[in-house]
Design a protein that fits this description.
Blueprint (H helix, E strand, L loop, with lengths): L13 H8 L3 H9 L5 H11 L4 E5 L5 E2 L3 E3 L5 E3 L8 E3 L6 E19 L4 E5 L3 E6 L11 E5 H4 L4 H5 L1 E4 L17 H10 L6 E4 L2 H14 L3 E8 L2 E7 L7 H9 L9 H4 L3 H15 E3 L3 E6 L2 H13 L3 E10 L6 E10 L25 E20 L4 E3 L5 E3 L5 H13 L4 E6 L2 H20 L10 E4 L3 E4 L7 E6 L2 H8 L6 E6 L6 H9 L7 E7 L7 H5 L12 E2 L12 H10 L2 H8 L14 H6 L15 E7 L10 E9 L6 E11 L7 H8 L7 E5 L4 H10 L4 E4 L8 H4 L5 H15 L2 E3 L5 H8 L5 E2 L5 E2 L15 H7 L22 H16 L1
Parallel strand pairs: 1-26, 1-27, 21-24, 21-25, 25-26, 28-31, 30-33, 31-32
Antiparallel strand pairs: 2-18, 3-4, 5-6, 6-7, 6-18, 8-9, 8-10, 10-18, 11-13, 12-13, 14-15, 15-17, 16-17, 19-20, 22-23, 23-24, 28-29, 29-30, 34-35
Helix pairs in contact: 2-12, 6-10, 10-11, 12-13, 14-15, 20-21
Length: 848
């Protein structure tokens, strides 16, 4: 138990604090945390703050101007508008990464921030700036790092603005595989600075350079350093070998891709820190000149100059780049040159030429802080941002530490507001995926506590104790006053429901995925009192269950108690018109409802496609693959469990053209659909099915007994695409939409049928195929990923395994490729006999 003077209730500041903020979590966010909420976040906060509130939030999907460069963890630099979920950006510490979870788009007032070194960024007014205090005054200590929105920064006085700067960070390691370098970094730097672009020669007047070249030549065992010409005080040295031996130096230049093309290859630019320092030393020892505190590097090549500036920043130096015009005194000819200045921390660069070494390194500034010189309003414009895990800080392309907009800010703010403003309050957090909650909401809660410590109410932060197991408590009231998190299952729900407090806030994240017995048990724990509140948030993926009911029959619109707050991307200030158009064109009707509009899917859309779309696959008189289209033959087989069992092995011959979501497929033949083939004979039937086609490829279900079938086919010399559609998708775009390859292939096949990109040109098993294709159930995960329910579940409504439709859907599975065929598109057609055979086949299928 804490001593009495340390209790929050004994602090005379606490009661005025409660009086000001207990009824206003928006004001709490602004004044206690120093953050500003969006309109939608403010609506949510107001609903939850209402006495005895019940809030259900179905939702659809601070930032940068277009073109702002962002550094990936790999070291690659891309514009912010090309950032995608799943990308890993370089963390602010320069040696770890942060994962992009979601994107943010919209329009807002924009501002250009220009720094003392001449560089600049354009931010929207809700963007969070990462700043560092440059001097000490009052509670402010030099070196303290804070975050503040542009909107709040604009309200600061001139002195406060002047005493805070942006800051940059070096990169200690990039997230990429390390390999051996073709040449030592220092030697490459020497050649880039004073070497001949198309020869193994270097011109230098410095004995240290000559010694480094000699040591390198000796280390190869085949090279020798030879004097070839005198150039004033300098001499040209050649790294040569005997006539019958390869020149290791030239080979290294070629392997690096720089022979006749001077630049810094990525493998050096993104190498480990020690190698980058050696490379920079070689460049400075040759083409650099020293001044009192740093170096100048003059280059005719803009590309090389920009790379040198980036290299210097990557190792912790300050660097600027400017163009300059130089005129020849003899001829009057002029040209544009590029001047790179390098300062701060230059003593870390291991230069070898004595006259290039900094005499008094202690006189240098060590920090990478840069004051804000000006802020220019630009009017309204588009901004681009994203949500990260971790501390939400990362590096821009110029190594400036930046901050993203966190989606969990609202929940974290509500948790701390409830904890600090209500005596002996209990806050219960639950979700199906507690690990995800710990790396998102709980990290945001820890960050929010640190914001409080830097604000005007810093005194109250000492009373919050955040534990590593996803719990927090008020010091001295550990058993009565807390935030608790539990996985959403029946056992934990009963334990949480056993908690009773005058002020109880229950938050259920991804509520669509939480079992009804959990949500109803938690709801039952709430007494009818002003201090009892419950919030459920989720993407609206299910048209049944307690969350769905809370938004419909249990809502205030139908005489219930729940207030539904639909967060639509159409109404969101974070989403641009361009992004909405792109999503609208990419998604099907259900995805538009769930992901864009924040609405529940329609009951009529519980199947991948309807019967009308399935019948449409048979209504094409002409091929959809044209004469000019590249296409190929493929034999696709779904393997049954064995002879005589209820499911059947299905084999289809298809023509395929194109890739991804533009793929066209024509089903030409169905060689067999039966359960009368022994498993050890099946490979021979598959082989026979493809014998009459040119450049045919084979795709075979490799799950279960299919793995043996694949091996037997390979033993017959047939290269097989092994299809395992229980696996997750590989493409990022598909990972964002589908639970696994099965859902991806079946959904893409349905989309193709609706778009007229999938037709069936044989009438075999027509009735059966229409029945199977129109009854594939569709469901959603809690993260709005499309999934196919388990076979045999209630969603299948008693339908048998759709083996024949499965085989056709294989044509759309991600990564399946074909060999182009030279056969004319008109050479493949359906025979009249085959059409007549369909009646018999349909009759047999009906019996099976």
């Amino acid at each position: 138990m804490a001593t009495k003077r340390n209790l929050i209730t004994d602090d005379p500041r606490w009661k005025p604090f409660v009086a000001r903020y207990a009824h206003d979590p928006v004001l709490f966010a602004q004044e206690v945390q120093g953050i500003y909420l969006s309109d939608q976040q403010m609506d949510l906060a107001a609903l939850v703050a209402a006495p005895d509130s019940r809030t259900a939030v179905p939702s659809g999907h601070g930032c940068f101007a277009k073109g702002t460069e962002i550094m990936l963890a790999s070291g690659d630099v891309i514009p912010v508008e090309e950032i995608l979920p799943g990308h890993r950006v370089m963390a602010a510490n320069g040696q770890s990464s942060r994962r992009v979870c979601e994107l943010r788009r919209g329009r807002e007032n924009m501002y250009r921030f220009t720094y003392n070194d001449g560089t600049s960024h354009v931010f929207n007014e809700s963007h969070i700036l990462c700043l560092v205090a440059t001097n000490s005054k009052g509670r402010r200590t030099a070196g303290d790092k804070i975050t503040v929105t542009v909107r709040e920064w604009l309200t600061w006085g001139e002195d406060k603005k002047r005493c805070h700067a942006i800051y940059r960070s070096p990169v200690r390691s990039f997230d990429r595989a390390e390999g051996s370098l073709p040449l030592p970094p220092y030697i490459l730097g020497v050649w880039l600075g004073d070497g001949h672009a198309s020869a193994a020669r270097v011109t230098t007047a410095d004995p240290e350079i000559k010694q480094a070249l000699q040591s390198f030549a000796d280390s190869t065992g085949t090279l020798r350093l030879k004097h070839v010409a005198k150039c004033g005080n300098a001499e040209t040295l050649a790294l040569s070998t005997t006539k019958w031996q390869d020149n290791a130096f030239i080979n290294g230049l070629r392997d690096a891709g720089v022979f006749t093309d001077k630049h810094i290859p990525d493998q050096y630019l993104l190498a480990p820190l020690a190698d980058r320092l050696e490379l920079l030393a070689g460049l400075i020892d040759t083409d650099g000149s020293r001044d009192c505190h740093g170096y100048d590097f003059i280059q005719k090549s803009e590309r090389l100059a920009r790379q040198v500036a980036w290299l210097a920043r990557s190792v912790g130096c300050h660097s600027t780049l400017k163009s300059t015009t130089k005129v020849c005194g003899n001829t009057g000819a002029s040209g544009t040159y590029w001047r790179v200045t390098i300062g701060r921390n230059t003593d870390a660069i291991p230069v070898r030429v004595q006259r290039k070494k900094i005499n008094n390194p202690n006189s240098q500034r060590r920090n990478l802080h840069f004051g804000i010189k000006s802020c220019e309003p630009l009017g309204e414009g588009d901004y681009f941002g994203f949500v990260l895990d971790g501390d939400h800080q990362f590096l821009g392309g110029d190594f400036t530490v930046l901050h993203n907009t966190g989606k969990t800010t609202s929940i974290a703010n509500l948790c701390l507001w409830h904890l600090l403003c209500f005596f002996n309050s209990n806050t219960l957090l639950t979700a199906n995926d507690m690990d995800q909650m710990k790396v998102t909401i709980w990290k945001e809660i820890a960050i929010a506590k640190n914001r409080i410590k830097r604000g005007p109410h810093a005194w109250i932060a000492q009373h919050i104790d955040i534990l590593s197991d996803g719990n927090a408590r008020i010091v001295g009231y550990e058993k009565e006053w807390f935030i608790e998190s539990k996985t959403a299952n029946a056992q934990n729900a009963n334990k949480m429901a056993g908690r009773h407090a005058d002020d109880l806030l229950i938050i259920v994240d991804e509520a669509s995925t939480v079992p009804d017995e959990v949500t109803t048990t938690l709801k039952g724990a709430l007494s009818s009192g002003p201090g009892n509140r419950m919030l459920m948030t989720s993407q609206p993926t299910k048209t049944s269950g307690f969350f769905y009911d809370a938004c419909h029959k249990l809502s205030i619109h139908n005489g219930g108690k729940w207030v539904p707050l639909r967060l639509s991307s159409v109404d969101s200030p974070w989403v641009s018109d361009e992004a909405l158009k792109e999503w609208w064109n990419d998604y099907d009707e259900d995805e538009r409802l769930v992901r864009i509009l924040g609405q529940f899917p329609e009951n009529s859309s519980k199947f991948m496609m309807g019967r009308r779309d399935a019948e449409r696959m048979y209504k094409f008189d002409a091929p959809i693959i044209g004469e000019g289209d590249e296409w190929g033959w493929m034999i696709l087989t779904d393997v049954a469990l064995g002879e005589g069992l209820r499911d059947k092995s299905a084999c289809v011959a298809v023509r395929i053209s194109g890739h991804g979501e533009e793929r066209k497929v024509e089903v030409m033949e169905i060689p067999f659909f039966t359960n009368n083939i022994r498993s050890n004979k099946l490979p021979y039937h598959i082989q026979e099915a493809g014998q009459s086609y040119e450049n045919v490829s084979w795709g075979v279900d490799a799950g279960g007994i299919g793995a043996t079938t694949c091996q037997q086919l390979e033993d017959l010399g047939i290269p097989v695409h092994r299809l395992l559609w229980g696996n997750p998708c590989f493409r990022k775009r598909n990972k964002q939409r589908y639970l696994n390859l099965r859902a991806q292939a079946m959904h893409q096949a349905a989309m193709a049928a609706k778009d007229g990109r999938l037709i069936i040109r044989t009438n075999k098993y027509k009735k059966l195929l229409i029945d199977q294709a129109s009854r594939i159930p569709k469901d959603w995960t809690g993260k709005s990923l499309i999934k196919v329910p388990e076979k045999g579940s209630r969603a299948w409504e008693g339908m048998k395994s759709p083996d024949l439709w499965d085989a056709i859907c294989f044509a759309f599975i991600e990564g399946l490729d074909y060999m182009p065929c030279s056969e004319s598109a008109n050479d493949a057609d359906v025979s009249e006999k085959e059409k007549l055979d369909s009646l018999v086949d349909d009759a047999l299928a009906g019996v099976g």
